[in-house]
Predict the 3D structure of the following.
Amino acid sequence: MKQFLIIGLGNFGMGVAKTLYKEGHNITAMDKGKSRVQLVQSYSNQALLADATDMVVLRQIDIENFDAAVVSTGIDQHASILITLHLKELKCREIIVKAEDSDHGRILLAVGADRVVFPEEEMAKKLAHSLSRPNLLDFIPLGEDITVAEIAPPTHFHGKTIASLKLRQKYHVELIAIKDVLDGSFKFIPSPETFFKDTDIMVCIGKLEDIERIQE
Amino acid sequence: MKQFLIIGLGNFGMGVAKTLYKEGHNITAMDKGKSRVQLVQSYSNQALLADATDMVVLRQIDIENFDAAVVSTGIDQHASILITLHLKELKCREIIVKAEDSDHGRILLAVGADRVVFPEEEMAKKLAHSLSRPNLLDFIPLGEDITVAEIAPPTHFHGKTIASLKLRQKYHVELIAIKDVLDGSFKFIPSPETFFKDTDIMVCIGKLEDIERIQE
Ligand SMILES: Nc1ncnc2c1ncn2[C@@H]1O[C@H](COP(=O)(O)OP(=O)(O)OP(=O)(O)O)[C@@H](O)[C@H]1O
Ligand SMILES: Nc1ncnc2c1ncn2[C@@H]1O[C@H](COP(=O)(O)OP(=O)(O)OP(=O)(O)O)[C@@H](O)[C@H]1O
């Protein structure tokens, strides 16, 4: 169980507080708006109505005891910059701040943020990828090259055996597993004689560009 | 190559336009703000300065020709609701709208949106999970039960062989691969005699709760 300080309870801050609280962590939440503080009461151990740019307020909380602080004060960039500066001075162990744009992000890192997040940009990329390649259901990049990806097999795979498709030779991709979407049944390292059905999902490992080539 | 219509060029809309444009798709972007339209010029084939709630404006674009439209007009919920309604009337094939809160999302679905997205909430959950379980680096849920996850092995694994850890018996988890973070080298289905190092990352398949148990 960890201790988290959440400053700024817009959609992002409230979402972080809620999720962490439900996972059993100790949450101190702060906002200068009364309705937000009231809303967060069911998702926090301490809900504070305060202006977090005020050093006097921050000194009254044991900042050093938190595992991390998450700051998201939205449009008011100056507020998040000032709060970050203060948290750094009060030796906060880890400071994560929601940035409004890349300049804001650079300033935040300069004044002491350990991590800056750009929720809209990250979701935008995720949505764009799902529109661009609807068969690429999800993926985890494992570093420079290799990716684990979940894809819907192209129609010309249906009714063919894994062996006949020569995935390793043609695409340099390894098939880790096949999942049937209808019954959820799961074959780990399926045998080469397994036939592809249109209700299958493939879990592959390889370079993302090679996995995407499968769908062309 | 697909055709996309992006209405509303805040951080989210601009991010979608940029990503799709760089992936080689045809982009028509629209905003009522001049600076945003100017900014999107290098990431679109058509950049239109217009109020998208105006049906007259929308009739001048061939709405039916787009693979999808992405609407994100921010705080002005009424604008996105009206635009969605119009796009539906003009037979837009797929309408994706950024929602400000769950009520807004419900209204959008009711007036014809095919998909609503909540970028701040989704990123909030993702951040919360990474704060709660920093060793769980990334994961793809494959459906009801099974997940592919990338984790940092707990310290008590270091110097031990895969075989001695009995991952399948103790945790019901399969180790798909080991990656070395220093040189990026990658072992697919590593041999049971492989020793774990502190520079390793494990790629596992199994239930998320079982994978998380590994780190306790
Ligand atoms: N100095 C401050 N001290 C405490 N809370 C603040 C301060 N400045 C802003 N806030 C709060 O931060 C929250 C920011 O929410 P707002 O919706 O404006 O921003 P956002 O980060 O863009 O939201 P979202 O998370 O929905 O994207 C508001 O609830 C506001 O009251
Ligand atoms: N009726 C409209 N027609 C065209 N563009 C519009 C209309 N209403 C709003 N917009 C544009 O939509 C954009 C919305 O951006 P804004 O930053 O307000 O919202 P947001 O969706 O919260 O942003 P972000 O994507 O950064 O979270 C603005 O650039 C604005 O000019």
